[in-house]
Structures are given as structure tokens and as C-alpha cells.
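Lecture notes, unit on protein representations.

Consider one protein chain, 417 amino acids long.
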Amino acid sequence: MNNSADLLKELRIDRSAPPPPTSRRGLWIALAAVAVLVVIALVAWAAFGRARGVEVRTATVTAIGNGGASGSVLDATGYIVARRMATVSAKITGKVREVFIEEGMKVDEGQVMATLDPLDADAERTLASAQHSAARSQVESVRAQLSEAEANARRLSTLVNQQLVSNAQYDEAVAARDSLRAELTTAERNAKVAGDRLRIADIGVDNTIVRAPFAGVVTAKAAQPGEIVSPLATGGFTRTGIGTIVDMDSLEVEVEVGEAFIGRVQPKMPVEATLNAYQDWKIPGEVIAIIPAADRGKATVKVRVALKQKDPRIVPDMGVRVSFLEPKKDEAPAQKPGALAPAAAIVAREGKQVAFVVTEDKASQREVTVGRSLGEDREITQGLSGGETVVLDPPASLSDGDRVRVAQGGDAEPASE
């Protein structure tokens, strides 16, 4: 009996027992899919995002040479200017017939640069020449009549003394002679006026030829055959000049010095000029004059500087940096050339002044030593060299060795004062 009851208990379903384990295959599939998506995203970021790099703007560091640290009392920037430059135009309004100049061509004083259509001027001269010939013929005619009248008056003077003719006849002959004398004077004056008019007509013909006022180099060709040129600005399509010539021997440097530092500059002061295009070429010079006027808006004073070297590489409107030098005393030890970088390229990282130098497509962090403040730029005595490219306003996320790419139009002008 007890055995049967125990058997029945064994056949009873235990509701409190845990359920049988379920399959985890679906969970593993989901986790694997998520992992694949993460890997794909990382690969895509590395291929497209990281490979492209951080978008930055850059600028070029400018070398300022030993002059910025050895014997230099002031650095300034300016431009090459020509003291003798002219836009050559015709003295009259006319149509261009021929142009004989091209950019870069050397011309001598008086050399023909262009000619205008001389049709009107030639017609005026022809008319003036005819009037002059007529006036001279009139003079000769009156002179011949006067000669006859004078002979007649002399003859009648003899006859009236012999009482062979009346006094009235003699008086009439004298009056005719005096009238012809006055007429001859008028004819001669008319001939002189006609001659002056002919010379003016010759000048009008000569004005159709445009000549160089001085020797120089043509820097611009402003007119073409068939165009109308005029010395007056009439608007429309009328040109005001044939071309521009520059006397290369009159080139000098014009710089603007802050009025707070103008006291450091003196006439005849030695300088060292460095062209932006040829930064390894140091050109000696001296201060010509300090213009006695200040620019109220920019708080600067213009200084003229003469260059002691003449070279075809020096052309107008070139950028130039000028170091004003103090008189040499004792030989000082040579110092390492400095550089000038935009202030926006210098940032603080971990208590240090650093800049990011771009080499190919990577930015390398470099610690720098900052010197003087020159306008919007900073003098770099250590850490940077002229010609290197630095990142402007580097983002906080930019690190040493990160890839970068220059934004479109992101190359700024070289550092300037």
C-alpha cells in the first residue's frame, strides 16, 4: 500500500521545478551583428574621416634674419615704389593707329611708343600751309605795287619842281605810295600769322606721335590699335593712356613706421632690406627722409629708404622688410636668425607656448620661444624657421602627429608687421 502511494508521488509533476534552459543562439547572432557594424564604422572613419584629417588654415613663417636681433632697433614692412613713373598719353583725342610697346620692353627718352590717326591733323596742316602761301603771295604783290608807286612819286616830285605837273597829281601819287606801304605792312603781318598757324598745325601733326618722356621699362600696355585715347577721363570705352613706364633707377622703399617708434628712425640711418621674394638676399640701404605727416587712421609715419644695390629682380610694388640698424660699434657674436609668425599660430599647451608645423599632411607640435610683438605678428627666437608652414588658430583637439588638410583658400599671407 505504501509502495503504491510512493509510486504515485513519483509520477506527479513538480510545478516548483525550474524550466528547462532555452537556446541562446539568437542572442549571439545579434551581438555578432552589432560587432560587425562597429567594426565597419571604425574602418569607415579611419578611411574617410581620419585619412582626410582636420581642416585647418595655414600661414607661412617669415625669416627676419640677423637684423632682427643684431644691431636692429626697429623692423618694418613696406613696398618698392618708383619715384619716376608715368602713364604716357597723347596730348589730343584720337584713334590709335599703331602701338610699338610691350610689357617688359625698355624704351629710350623720345622713343616712339604709338601713333594716332593723323587724318584730321594732316588736313589742318594742309589748309594752314595753303593760307601761308597765299599770304606770302599777297605780300609779294603789294611789294611790287609799292615799288611802282614809289618810283612814280619820285618822278612826279621832279616834274612838280619844274612845274610840268600839278601839285594835285603829285599829292595823289604820294597818297597811293603811302597807302601801299600800309597795305604791305598789313600783308606782312597776315603772312606772319599764317606762318604761326602753320607751325601750330605742325605741332598738331606731331601730337599724333606719342613718345617716351624718359628712359625706362614698360610695365603696362593700356591701348590697342583702333581704340580711342584721350588725355581727359571721358568715361565709356575711351582710354586715357598708351602705357606706363617706370624709371628703374628711381626705385626705393617706402615703409610705414608706427608713430610710437618713429623716434628711433633718423635720416641717413643704415638699413637692411629683405625682399619677400628673395628672403636670403640682404640689400643695404639708408634712410632718405621721414615724411613730416602722420596717418591719423593707422597712426603711422612714412619713411623713404634708398637701396644701394640696383638689380633687375627689384620691381615696383614688391613687398619688403626693412631692419633699421644702429651704428656699428664692436663686433657682436653672431646670433641665430629669427622668424616672424602670426600671433594666431601660437597657443598654450600644458603651460608652454607651442605652434603646429605642417609637413606634407601631418601637424607636428613644436615648442617656441616668443620675442617681441610686431603688430599682429610675434617674433620667434627659437622653434621656427623662415619658410615653414604653421596652423592658424589650431583647435584644441589637434595633437602632435594628427593628419591635417588645408581648407580651401586657407593659405594666409606670410607673416607681416
